[in-house]
Design a protein that fits this description.
Layout (H helix, E strand, L loop, with lengths): L3 E10 L3 H12 L6 E13 L5 E13 L2
Antiparallel strand pairs: 1-3, 2-3
């Protein structure tokens, strides 16, 4: 029998969505083992006064095997 657990994490980057996802998963993997995948369920941006994107933020649900 396999048991999986899901946690939700947030990550940000000023380089883009992909970088926010990769850096968030890399940091998560420092303490969480057996990561199987992630679902990006929310994307946000921070903008400057001119409307340009200054930071990308993602919320992810990360799935990992516990047993």
């Amino acid at each position: 029998m396999t048991i999986a657990k899901i946690i939700e994490i947030s990550s940000s980057s000023d380089h883009g969505i992909e970088d926010a996802v990769q850096s968030g998963l890399k940091r998560c993997a420092e303490t969480v083992k057996n990561i199987q995948g992630a679902w990006v369920n929310e994307i946000k941006v921070v903008t400057g006064p001119d409307g340009g994107v200054t930071e990308w933020r993602v919320n992810m649900r990360v799935t990992f095997i516990v047993a």
